[in-house]
UniProtKB/TrEMBL annotation:
InterPro entries: IQ_motif_EF-hand-BS (IPR000048), IQCG (IPR042618). This is Dynein regulatory complex protein 9. One of its GO terms (biological process) is cilium organization. It is found in: Cytoplasm, Cytoskeleton, Flagellum axoneme. It comes from Diatraea saccharalis. Its main location: cytoplasm. Residues 155-182 form a coiled coil.
Amino acid sequence: MDAILFALALEVVLLQMRILESTSELRYRKKTESKPEKAQREKLVRDRSRGGILNELITKRTEWTLELCNADQKIAQLRDKMKDEMQNANARLCYVDKWLFARHESLEMQWNLEPRAPAPSLNHENRVHAELVRAYELQIEERECTLQYWKQKYLDDTANINERLTNKCEQLRQVVAKREELQKLFDLHAGEMRAWLTFKSERAARLAREKLRKDAATRLQAWWRGIMVRRALGSFRHLKNLKKTPTKKKK
């Protein structure tokens, strides 16, 4: 980074020197030229100097940008390298630590060995072998007894399950037969109920018609009786020589 800053400062100084040289040349030409020429010359020089400076600045900015990108890449590479070195160092330290610990344990075992017990006798070996064989035989016998027990239990359970299935099938057949019989009885009662409801509705309609005819006949008879009474027709004619019934005198 210091080298980059030094290069930037050097470029700025060179640009300032070029600007001073161009200004000195302009001052010298101003003394020998007329005013319009001087003005035109100054404008042309300013434009050229401005364009040249801008181009140089753009070029330098591009170069500085590339240098900064390269510097960033180098910094990232250095960081990755430092990280890898740190991880490798930690791995080596861990390996050395474990190796030293294992070496320490091996040395302790080497210098702290206890005396071994004497080898067992042949009789002892035979007795132990016989006991192991007997133990294995007992375990095998126990496994065989357990296997026989579970075989018999499986046969008994399957026979019991088959018997229960047979009973359940018979019960299902009886229930289905009873259900069909009850369904027939239900259908019969349903037909009777429909017939009874039909009869009931027809009877209600017939009674309503009879009541309507009876009420109509009663109203017609009452109307006719009223006409006969008002007009004194039939048995309601007025009697001219109607004998008055004697009234009883009070004592």
